[in-house]
Design brief:
mainly beta, 3-stranded antiparallel sheet
Length: about 80
Amino acid sequence: MSLEPKIKEAIANKKMICPTCKKPILKYDKYAETIDSVREGFNIDTVDSYGVRVTLICANEGCAWKERTEYPMEYVLEE
């Protein structure tokens, strides 16, 4: 369920694009998976939703763009 391998692959393949300079994003930081709601009780163990938060960093020369997002795959350029 983790998106971290997909983020690493998109960055390595230069498919994650900076919206400011339109060049490939070079780094990411502070990856975290989140669970929004958990219910536990007598024979009940329910997780309502999963999500991720990650800081994407352009790091190209002359571009200071960086964003903390819950939707990192929106920056992946589809071929």
